Amino acid sequence: MRQQRLLNPTLRDVPGDAEAASHRLMLRAGLIRQLSSGIYSYLPLGLKALQHIQTIVREEMDRAGAQEMLMPALHPAELWKASGRWDVYGPELMRLEDRHGREFALGATHEEVITTLVKDEIHSYKKLPVTLYQIQTKYRDERRPRFGLLRGREFLMKDAYSFDRSKSGLDASYQAMYDAYVNIFTRCGLQFRAVEADSGAIGGTDTHEFMALAEVGEDTIVHCPACQYAANMEKAVGRISNELASPSDVATTLQPTKIHTPGVTSIKQLSQFLHMDTKQMIKSLAVLADGKPVIVLVRGDLEINEIKLNHVLGVQEVTMLSEADITAIGSVAGFIGPIGLTNVTLIADTSIQGLRNAVIGANEADYHLQHVDVSRDLGDITYVDVRNVGLGESCIHCGHELAFAKGIEVGHVFKLGTTYSESLGATFSDENGLSEPMIMGCYGIGVSRVLAAVIEQHHDEKGIIWPAAIAPYSVHLLTVQVGDEAQMALSEEIYHTLTRAGFSVLWDDREERPGVKFNDADLLGFPLRLTVGKKTSERIVECKERHNGDLYEMNVEQLLAHCQSLFN
């Protein structure tokens, strides 16, 4: 491609709301342009990179035995209502009506559509297992689109669905997709971790998220540097060291005592007021679950994880009790404690187990209780994990201290089981003619998000540094003086030699100053830059490798072999 003909509007300045490095660089390098909030057009260079990612996805999915197809983006509402997700999915689902008043949704995901299709087409165990996938635009009404392609309202996704006759078959399909994802993200040049995760609105169990490590990531990953354990904060568990549980002082023999704490309604205020470590305090959270009041206890320095709590309580969401509701259960907002309360469910996080000489609310305005011994004073409590893992916690597998990192979710694999096959009637006949529900898995990759995540990880102050496998072009050929016939002739020779050999080459034949061309080359970041300039008469070109900055000269006759070695 000759660059003077390329639609590639580079920018010096980018909009102030472009917070992420990938967003800024994709705008500056002319890869994307915004049409509306969270909605982008892909310009030629952006589309070529996106297509290269799709090629990798297709190769690995096909190698894993999956079959590509394409499903509609417009879904009848009755499918989503049959699965129970029309209301559960919430406001992110883009809904519309046709001229006849019939309700539809733009596809945010395709579990309902694929299950209905397979239900109608596969009836015998002889046709199972099967895994089907598509690469298609998805739509979600994000409340706050941000970070360019990392959180948009319209995005490109690869979604796959497996159908098996047994749980062991699902295990095999899941592992095949897991391995394919490892290959895909490795080939795309991503640094990533596969972490245990929560299934959310998709449903199912045994899920893993594939997280690209990046500071701009909105998810926190908890991982062990010494073993393979890694989990999203929604699923992470750790072993807490509760040094305050030891009966090493006289306070363990003291009974709970009420102390005056005027206006002290938060753990931070209480710590300052009593000059005491927050680890020695118990935080009480009052919530409503299915219409019933629940008091959740956690150590003062830690936070409740709402998703874990929802799972423990068996509800979709919990709401905070109002001040009136707190009064109705016999307590006072800001001074809630478990001692003396009746007609409430008590949930205790494992972080308070064995805690002695603790401070908790006294259920009376401006008062707390001190010298509380959890085992002695709170009775027989069932301890559960409902907290976010905190600093200093150790791995439950090997005991090493856990570490934290930020990540961008680029892929997610789920074992759905029979969640959708039962609600939508997708069954098969086994060897004995008995009807059984198909056992499903689903597997998604945010293809456009992968593009942004790669740039987030691969850039410097000058611009993008493309991994060779997904770079829009492998070689950037620069002619310093396009008015020089000798330089143009040698450039054209190089261009045709490399393109005939199968290399993708962008030839900068623009009438621009050399400095502009070099800066644009660094911004666009293709793996190899070839500069035809002052040594044209000697048939020598300058070579620069973008990823390491290596600069060297080479005779034109050596270029083809060099490129074959470099890119293979």
From TrEMBL:
Q: Gene3D superfamilies, per this entry? A: Anticodon-binding domain, Bira Bifunctional Protein, Domain 2
Give the EC number(s) listed in the UniProt record.
6.1.1.15
A single GO cellular-component term on record: cytosol
User: What InterPro entries does the entry give?
Assistant: aa-tRNA-synt_IIb (IPR002314), aa-tRNA-synth_II (IPR006195), aa-tRNA-synth_II/BPL/LPL (IPR045864), Anticodon-bd (IPR004154), Anticodon-bd_dom_sf (IPR036621), Pro-tRNA-ligase_IIa (IPR002316), Pro-tRNA-synth_IIa_bac-type (IPR004500), Pro-tRNA-Synthase_IIa_type1 (IPR023717)
Ranges where the Aminoacyl-transfer RNA synthetases class-II family profile domain occurs: 33-467
Coiled-coil intervals: none
Q: Does the keyword ATP-binding apply?
A: yes
One matching Pfam family is tRNA-synt_2b
Name the Gene Ontology molecular function terms of this record.
Answer: aminoacyl-tRNA deacylase activity; ATP binding; catalytic activity, acting on a protein; proline-tRNA ligase activity; transferase activity
Per UniProt, the keywords (alphabetical) are:
Aminoacyl-tRNA synthetase, ATP-binding, Cytoplasm, Ligase, Nucleotide-binding, Protein biosynthesis
Where it sits in the cell: the answer is: Cytoplasm
Q: Which reaction is catalysed here? A: tRNA(Pro) + L-proline + ATP = L-prolyl-tRNA(Pro) + AMP + diphosphate
A biological process from GO? prolyl-tRNA aminoacylation
| Free-text function comment from the UniProt entry | Catalyzes the attachment of proline to tRNA(Pro) in a two-step reaction: proline is first activated by ATP to form Pro-AMP and then transferred to the acceptor end of tRNA(Pro). As ProRS can inadvertently accommodate and process non-cognate amino acids such as alanine and cysteine, to avoid such errors it has two additional distinct editing activities against alanine. One activity is designated as 'pretransfer' editing and involves the tRNA(Pro)-independent hydrolysis of activated Ala-AMP.
Record-stated family: Belongs to the class-II aminoacyl-tRNA synthetase family. ProS type 1 subfamily.
How this chain assembles, per its entry, is:
Homodimer.
The domain comment in this protein's record states: Consists of three domains: the N-terminal catalytic domain, the editing domain and the C-terminal anticodon-binding domain.
This chain belongs to the protein called Proline--tRNA ligase
Q: Which organism is it from?
A: Paenibacillus pectinilyticus
